[in-house]
Amino acid sequence: MNLRIPGPTPCPEEVLQSMAQPMINHRGPGFERLIQKVTGRLKQFFQTRNDLLILTASGTGAMEAAVVNTLSPGDKVLAVSIGLFGERFAAIAETYGAEVIRLDFPWGQPADPEAVRKALKKSPDIKAALITHNETSTGVTNDLAALSAVVKELDKLLVVDAISSIGSIDLPVDTWHCDVVISASQKGWMAPPGVAMVSISEEAWRFAARAKMPRFYWDLAKAKSSLEKGQTPWTPAISTLFALEKSLDLMAQEGLSNIVERHARVGKATRKGVQSLGLSLLAQEQWASNTVTAVQIPQGMDAKRLLHTLREEHKVILAGGYGNLAGKIIRIGHLGFVTEEDMQQVVEALRASLLKVGFKTSHLTDVRGS
Amino acid sequence: MNLRIPGPTPCPEEVLQSMAQPMINHRGPGFERLIQKVTGRLKQFFQTRNDLLILTASGTGAMEAAVVNTLSPGDKVLAVSIGLFGERFAAIAETYGAEVIRLDFPWGQPADPEAVRKALKKSPDIKAALITHNETSTGVTNDLAALSAVVKELDKLLVVDAISSIGSIDLPVDTWHCDVVISASQKGWMAPPGVAMVSISEEAWRFAARAKMPRFYWDLAKAKSSLEKGQTPWTPAISTLFALEKSLDLMAQEGLSNIVERHARVGKATRKGVQSLGLSLLAQEQWASNTVTAVQIPQGMDAKRLLHTLREEHKVILAGGYGNLAGKIIRIGHLGFVTEEDMQQVVEALRASLLKVGFKTSHLTDVRGS
Questions:
Q1: Nearest to B20 among A19, A24, A96 (CB)
Q2: Residues of chain A contacting residue B214, judged by C-beta atoms under 8 Å apart
Q3: pLDDT over threshold 50, residue B365
Q4: Given an 8 Å threshold on Cβ–Cβ distance, is B193 in contact with A235?
Q5: B166: left (phi over 0), alpha (psi -120 to 50) or beta
Q6: Which of A16, A193, A234 sits opposite B58 (nearest CB)?
Q7: Is B292 helix (H, G, I), strand (E, B) or coil?
Q8: Residues of A in contact with B23 (CB under 8 A)
Q9: Under an 8 A CB cutoff, do A24 and B3 touch?
Q10: Cis peptide leading into A214, omega within 30 of 0?
Q11: pLDDT (tens digit, 9 = 90+) per residue, A262-281?
Q12: Which terminal residue of chain A, N or C, has fewer Cβ atoms less than 10 Å from its own Cβ?
């Protein structure tokens, strides 16, 4: 199978094999080496000197941790949303009693920094901004540098969902003054799901000291004090950390700038390939994501049948759309363990599947017959 | 290494190898088969027709899920504690604003059902009882059948931490009317940590419908509606589920009653072996756990040095004590992938290590020299 959803992503064979290592004591010296190494490597890829903590959870758990460790019920927060995962961030904050001011942009478009400035100025008692770096549901990457400049100009805490960007798309956490940044193992990190990571700035720790939202499992202060002993407060997902250790080795060999360039090349090739089939992209090129591409499905075409054909006849697994975009888009993941050749295969499978489900335009030529 | 802590436990080689399977789509038919199979098998081992839901988390996350899905801030709950994990349950409920009435028993002893009855009668507005089935910090198994009879006689919700018991020690969830029962993959299930499970009775769902504690990641109603589609609300720990699928296959081959009998034999053999060295157990035989044995360390002996010697010279990994018992006990895990022979090796290593750290009594004879 050619798994090309926006996470979980395929894992290199060495990464899969590394999980077959025997179990170890999570309170022993072997685990201490493991967690310190993985944490150190992640900090390099986060380009941060901030604390970085590892949670046994999927990315949504880390989103929840980001919220409950920095805010109190009644706190005003600006939730900048450009898609499903932006909405999720807002919903989590609301669940815990924050007063959420929503700033929604149309799905397929990025957030406008000027609109963010306006919203922050309008409610000066806003304490924090929740921002998605890369919106997995629409294939849009926000201009986080510009958004950060606005948020920091107005002296708010900046909480970033970088689940499907960091480690694949450039996100210099310290340079861009991101206070809380989260990701998850099954995205660009090329490891299985089950581990999430959170970086926390000193400013975020100051927020944490005052934050009154209830937290136990997600308590990052506990995670920090455990990490000082080379441990985690609760039993960690050891095998997933073995995988992450190996995948971070591979990533370190390639180097962050090479990885970012590869994702830029692969993203561009994917978009060009899809467009060469006569299909339209949801996002414009200038903000199109280099980790996930949302492809518009021609009116009248059955997206489910297309995905089914791709899977059953070509062993290519793509994702559908969420919410209002269900049935209207398909999404191609190209993050982590991926090359331009992989995407060429996807585009060819897409071409054949489109023909199969009856999509005929002058753009479409069956290369198999040529 | 001979990993004999009370979790993570060793995993059979087939279980470790199963994690090397390629990643799959968590919204596709392969995952649907996986989650339905694992859920079905777990329900058999839980001996329940209740819903059973799988979380990407360690056991503490499932404890939190049990609390926040059934209670509201201000609700009175009885927290019956016989050790560290009983205290943790109480702390979680307090964190979320429950009015916790603590009923603590001395570490090393079980809960007295009569004392529980008294406490419940004294505060008739108590809504739920939080009870540990098997206290991992002390090696004590509560008489859950008797405790359940009291809790149900007084018509309270029964929330059970069975993390280190169910699947190893008999716990017929439906027969004993346990409303919420939690466990975690790295215990008797012989799989790596990262997956937790929660069973929920119809009565617990009625509580959930009214419960006002905030929940998002832990929302079991979301998990239930996702499971109906063969999915999980958030990206699940797929590789750990591959492991659990394989280990549940192995457990099904052995059969629950055989597994429970094996743990009873192994537990008894461990206790006899330790006592044959002249050491005392923390728990009396009648309530000693069949999954973990707490061994008292002779006064003046350095428990850390003993554990270090066991690890470095015999490759046997045991655990220390928590809280007031730190330095006073060591704990031997014997759950999951374990035989009487494994425990015989542990006892022999313990004998040699005790001699090494200077423990000399008439009971101790060096079998290697005989």
A1: A19
A2: 95-97, 213-214
A3: no
A4: yes
A5: beta
A6: A234
A7: strand
A8: 3, 8-11, 186, 192
A9: yes
A10: no
A11: 999 999 999 999 999 999 99
A12: C
Contact B96 A16 (CB under 8 A): no
Q: What is the pLDDT of residues A145-202, one digit of tens each?
A: 999 999 999 999 999 999 999 999 999 999 999 999 999 999 999 999 999 999 999 9
- Closest-approach residue (CA) in chain A for B14: A20
CB pairs under 8 A between A and B: 186
- Strand B195-200 and strand B180-184: the pairing is antiparallel
Locate tokens 């419960």: which residue?
Answer: B211
Q: In this structure, which amino acid lies at residue B355?
A: L
Q: Write out pLDDT tens, residues B49-82.
A: 999 999 999 999 999 999 999 999 999 999 999 9
Contact A205, B29 (CB under 8 A): no
H helix or E strand, kind and range, residue B349? helix B340-356
How many whole angstroms from its chain centre is CA A370? 39
- For residue A36, give both structure tokens: 């310190």
Between CA A124 and CA A120 the distance in angstroms is 6
User: What token pair was written down for B42?
Assistant: 């777990």
Q: How far is A87 from chain B (nearest CA, A)?
A: 13
- Residue of chain A minimizing CA distance to B98: A214
